[in-house]
Amino acid sequence: MSELQSSIPLPERMRPKSLEDFVGQSHLIGPKGAITQALQQGIIPSMIFWGPPGVGKTTLAQLIAEKSERSFQTLSAINSGVKDVRAVIDRARSGGMFASSSPILFIDEIHRFSKSQQDSLLGAVEKGWITLIGATTENPSFEVISALRSRCQIYVLKQLEKSDLVELLERALKHDAQLKPKSLKLKESDALLLYSGGDARRMLNALELVANTSKQKEITNAVCKEILQERLADYDKGGEQHYDIISAFIKSIRGSDADASMYWLARMMRGGEDPKFIARRLLILASEDIGLVNPTAMVLANTCFQAAQAIGYPECELTLAQTTLYLAKSQKSNSAYTALGRAKKLAEEFPSEGVPLHLRNAPSELMKDLDYGKDYKYPHDYPGNWVEQSYLPKALLGKQIYKPGKNKREES
Fold first, then answer.
1. CA-CA distance, 373 to 110, in Å (whole number)?
2. Range of 118's domain?
3. CB-based contacts of 300: which residues, under 8 Å, 6+ apart?
4. Strongest mean pLDDT among 177-191, 229-243, 328-342
């Protein structure tokens, strides 16, 4: 084995060579999957892959290019600017870089592109000079401009299941040229799975570290913990700590623990977490966990989000801290959240109930003749601007969807 081959990390050595070898995402690449159908038809749309780290976004893009026999070019949103994007597009348009007429341009972490960088892609995607595949760990609705989203199919890549991750571990031990001669046996996998947080790349890197460090022939939880424990305390904004710490942060605020909330906030700041990500989660929490008991929380959280977008680190740190403390100390109510859940359930159970006649709009004489709007009582014509009448369809009369929280504001 050459020195170059031995220096290639295990995740790269184990990268699937075909869609048949790809683990997970059966909803996309299974027999009836959307991407499978597109490949069979030979029509590959521009698309955005949204999912957590280590689930195969880059690999899937490469395999699509190979399967469709298209040239493949990559850009990283971290170190590429508008100039780089335009250079790639110009070469693609002139045919100087790619062999095919419809090359695939893969942009990793596309959510890091600014609006102007994303704008620079629009014409090329619309005219078919390139087929764009973008990868993001963030919600495209927030991080990708609407004009670009409208030109792309959004595909959600799911977190890998435990069975998927164990299969990848077994494959590596059995088939990797460097690990196979070691004759290692996977006796226990929980520690590796815990360390990975569902990130296959992180898990395989950990496996390689354990395999190259341990003198044991059996891979056990104890062996893995001994070797990996020093790294478990790190904050990796692209790995499982990203999700674990934001979860602890939100749950601390929901539980009205100001001290814990500030600690987890500081951990994220220290790790370089995107302030927009933190502010967005605060905005969601203000609506979901505080809601009607304190509507000002939503206003403050939205202002915080706008500040995080406008000024960034380090200036927005105090704004994030203020908002965190305000939300942690606020009263809590999830009545709007639970009411929406009940309403959605009823909408599923009763999807086609007709609007009562007295509530229907009557813009024409024919509709008036059909009693549209008849017997509707205009609340402002009555004392207190309220009058008793039914507003739900007949099948739902008497159903209580909104149940006030136990606080003075909602009970009044």
1. 50
2. 24-156
3. 286, 323, 326, 327
4. 328-342
